[in-house]
Amino acid sequence: MAQYTKHPAAAPPQAPERESTGHLLLRGYIILVLFATFAHAAVYNLVGEYGAVAVLLGFLIATLAIGIPMIARRRPQRFAWRRLPWAATAYTALALLSVIWSQWRGSTLITWVLLATVTVNALFVVHVLSWNEIVRALASAFKWILGLSLAIELWVALIVHGPILPNFFVRPEGEEINAHWYWVRGNLFDGDRIQGIVGNSNLLAIISLFAILTFGVRFAARARWRTTLALWMILAAYFLLRAGSATAYACAAATGVVLVLALLMRRTRTPGGRTRLYVLFVGGGAVLAAAVWVLRDPLLSILGRSGDLTGRSDRIWTKVLERAAEHPVFGNGFSSPWVPFDPAFDGWIVDHGITVFHAHNMWLDVLMQLGVVGVVLMALAYLSLLWRSWFFAVDRPRWDLTSDRPYSPVTLLPSLFTVVLLVQGLTESTPIMLWGWMLLVMLTFKIKSVPLIGIGERDRVIEHGERARRVP
Questions:
Q1: Out of 52, 203, 205, 397, which residue is the most buried by the measure of CB atoms under 10 Å away?
Q2: How many CA atoms lie within 13 A of 223 on its CB side?
Q3: In the prediction, which pLDDT does 340 show?
Q4: Which contacts of 461-466 are long-range, i.e. CB under 8 A and separated by 24 or more positions?
Q5: Is residue 237 within 8 Å of 447, Cβ to Cβ?
Q6: What is the 3-state secondary structure (H, E, C) of 355-410?
Q7: Do residues 419 and 445 touch, judged by C-beta distance below 8 A?
Q8: CA dihedral sign of residues 342, 423, 395, 279
Q9: What's the burial of 301, exposed, middle or buried (CB within 10 Å: 0-12/13-18/19+)?
Q10: Element (H, E) at 290
Q11: How far is residue 18's CA from residue 418's CA, in Å, rounded to a whole number?
Q12: Is 164 left (phi over 0), alpha (psi -120 to 50) or beta?
């Protein structure tokens, strides 16, 4: 039983700060937005293409309905207009402007609305949540994706005893269907690659890697329920392994190297020591990259992949470059993803009987769509995020004469996420659309708006249920 003194000089007891019901509902809504964005493939498989678009538009309307009154109630200068991710904003504007010269105007308008929806939601998340709350919301969204992935894999393996098609349709008895059309193939216990609720092994692997990084940061930050976090990390690692994605393995290796370098940088106290580390890692990275390139065929064969990256270089990249050469400066028109029912894309590049909907390389995709100008803007957006996130991770937080404040594990997450996106962008185009674009906009805007953990009232609340602690 809690006891306290009644001495008149003692301060009365105070309960820990609690989040208001409104803010709890707001965080719940944002978790739902993040889930629908990262697991958009699951939404697509559940309600179809029109239903998936309607879900994103519904979130856009809801975000505007919630966000506009919130901004209006505050002073206009409270919104960090000057801190917007201007390179990403310029890319979004160029994508809309490309409808003028687009070779597929309908696809440009449809996909631009999706791009604008994700952008607005990302800006809204940054505006209403602190760094710690964003990480918690990401962790919650990943838990839902992993938990539902385990549930659907168990259901298909133990009850259905066979693969299922989108909308939970079971394969007709005796009918042969291309395995790439399946939502979940029921491989949980047979050792083959699994797809989870997102219906794609590569996507499940990348989300599992994001989840491991997020849970690990929260574990290092000594969040509550650390044992539960460790169990979630084990589940995410299991999915990463069973998904069998070579791209995800490469991303994991790259993040491991960057994490080690960042931690070493944090321990180095002199500029000269940092310079030596930079030289060592740049030189070592160049040697390692050269070795991987020379030995790419045997390395890919170990992972069960061909030397042409599963047909990307021959069947996809060559055709994309040919189309990009037709309009090299401003491109052929924005469309991320490629709309499969548009005549310009329907049957243009076919893989396993399915029309391909992106270039499997974000830089080639941007070059074809928005030309050299688009590539420059995208490069500026990612270089800006990489630069800011790196020093956000390795520089000690300081805004006054105090120079020995402890590092926060949360500051490592943006740089690790950025490395994953950049490495994945070499073989996939997802970093320029949906959740990849959301992370780019969200992390860039948040770092520019709040470059130090602990600044602002919301960032002073370390965890729900704890008393707010002010930065000394």
A1: 205
A2: 24
A3: 87
A4: 461/17, 461/19, 461/130, 461/132, 462/132, 463/132, 463/223, 463/224, 464/18, 464/19, 464/136, 465/16, 465/18, 465/224, 466/16, 466/17
A5: no
A6: ECCCCCCHHHHHHHHHHHHHHHHHHHHHHHHHHHHHHHHHCCCCCCCCCCCCCCHH
A7: no
A8: negative
A9: exposed
A10: helix 271-294
A11: 33
A12: beta
DSSP labels for 143-208?
HHHHHHHHHHHHHIIIII-S-EEGGGEEPPTT----GGG-SB---TTTSS---TTTT-HHHHHHHH
Q: Which two tokens stand for residue 207?
A: 């989300």
| CA-CA-CA-CA dihedral for 16, 22, 24, 27, to nearest 10 | -130
Which of 10-24, 130-144, 157-171 is predicted most confidently? 130-144
Q: CB-based contacts of 198: which residues, under 8 Å, 6+ apart?
A: 39, 41, 42, 145, 149, 204, 207
Contact 358, 336 (CB under 8 A): yes
Tens-place pLDDT, residues 226-254? 899 999 999 999 999 999 898 999 999 99
The residue among 467, 394, 457, 464 whose CA lies nearest residue 78 is 457
Sign of the torsion angle spanned by Cα atoms 358, 364, 366, 371? negative
Amino acid at 42: A
pTM over the 0.85 mark: yes
- pLDDT bin (cut points 50, 70, 90) of residue 471 is very low
Question: pLDDT category, 1, cuts 50, 70, 90?
Answer: very low
